[in-house]
C-alpha cells in the first residue's frame, strides 16, 4: 500500500460509506444497530470526523467484518481467512470468504423443535450443500429433505425456510450475495 497514516485515515470514510450502501443500510438503520447517532456516522463517512476505536468497533460488529477491513489495513501475505463465527437467532455462521461479492459461510443449525417454520423472502439467490445431518428445506409449496452430499440452489424471492429434519444439528456450506448475507445475518427486529 505504501500510503501515509493520513492517507489511510482519509480512506476510512469512503470505505464505510461504500460498505453501508452495499449492505443496503440507511444512516438511521445503522444508527439504531450501533448506537452511534446519524450525524456522527455522516461526518465519519464524509471525513469530517476522525475514526476511533469507539466508533469502528460497533461498525465492524454490525457488518461482521474484521476491524482491519474497515481501515484498509494492508494484507500480511497470509491467505488464510480468520474464521470469526457470528451467531444470530440460534444459528451460527462461520465466514469462509472475505467480505464483498458472493459470500461463503459454513452454517450450523441446532435442533429447534420449539421453532415454528416462518418462510421468508429477500433479494438474491442461494446455494447450499449439506455437510452433515438432514436438512428440511421449505421452498414455496415444496417440502424437501436433503442428506449429506446433496445441494440446492434457489431464487430467494421464493418464500423459504431451512432447518434440521430431526433432533440433530445440520451443517451446511452456503453461498449468497450481500443481499442474502444481510437478510440472514442481521439481528431480527421484533
UniProtKB/TrEMBL annotation:
- Which superkingdom does the taxonomy of this entry point to? Bacteria
Keyword DNA-binding present in the record's keywords: the answer is yes
- One CC-aspect GO term: cytosol
Task: Report the InterPro entries cross-referenced here.
Answer: Cro/C1-type_HTH, Cupin_2, Lambda_DNA-bd_dom_sf, RmlC-like_jellyroll, RmlC_Cupin_sf, TransReg_Diox_bact_type
Presence of the UniProt keyword DNA-binding in the record: yes
For this UniProt record, the keywords arranged alphabetically read as follows: DNA-binding
Sample GO molecular function, one term: DNA-binding transcription factor activity
> Tell me, what's a Pfam family for it?
HTH_31
Q: State the CDD domains in the record.
A: HTH_XRE (cd00093)
What Gene3D superfamilies does this protein map onto?
Jelly Rolls, lambda repressor-like DNA-binding domains
Boundaries of each HTH cro/C1-type domain copy?
16-70
What the entry lists under PANTHER family is as follows: HTH-TYPE TRANSCRIPTIONAL REGULATOR, METHYLPHOSPHONATE SYNTHASE
Official protein name in the record: Helix-turn-helix domain-containing protein
Amino acid at each position: 500500500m505504501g500510503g501515509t497514516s493520513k492517507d489511510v485515515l482519509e480512506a476510512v470514510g469512503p470505505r464505510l460509506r461504500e460498505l453501508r450502501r452495499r449492505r443496503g443500510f440507511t444512516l438511521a438503520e445503522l444508527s439504531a444497530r450501533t448506537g452511534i447517532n446519524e450525524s456522527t456516522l455522516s461526518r465519519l463517512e464524509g471525513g469530517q470526523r476522525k475514526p476511533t476505536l469507539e466508533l469502528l468497533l460497533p461498525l465492524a460488529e454490525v457488518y461482521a467484518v474484521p476491524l482491519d477491513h474497515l481501515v484498509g489495513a494492508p494484507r500480511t501475505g497470509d491467505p488464510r481467512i480468520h474464521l470469526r463465527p457470528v451467531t444470530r437467532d440460534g444459528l451460527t455462521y462461520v465466514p469462509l470468504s472475505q467480505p464483498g461479492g458472493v459470500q461463503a459461510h459454513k452454517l450450523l443449525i441446532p435442533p429447534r423443535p420449539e421453532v415454528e417454520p416462518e418462510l421468508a423472502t429477500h433479494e438474491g439467490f442461494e446455494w447450499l450443500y449439506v455437510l452433515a445431518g438432514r436438512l428440511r428445506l421449505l421452498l414455496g409449496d415444496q417440502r424437501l429433505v436433503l442428506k449429506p452430499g446433496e445441494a440446492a440452489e434457489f431464487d430467494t424471492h421464493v418464500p423459504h425456510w431451512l432447518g434440521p429434519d430431526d433432533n440433530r444439528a445440520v451443517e451446511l456450506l452456503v453461498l449468497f450475495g450481500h443481499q442474502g448475507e444481510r437478510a440472514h445475518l442481521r439481528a431480527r427486529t421484533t
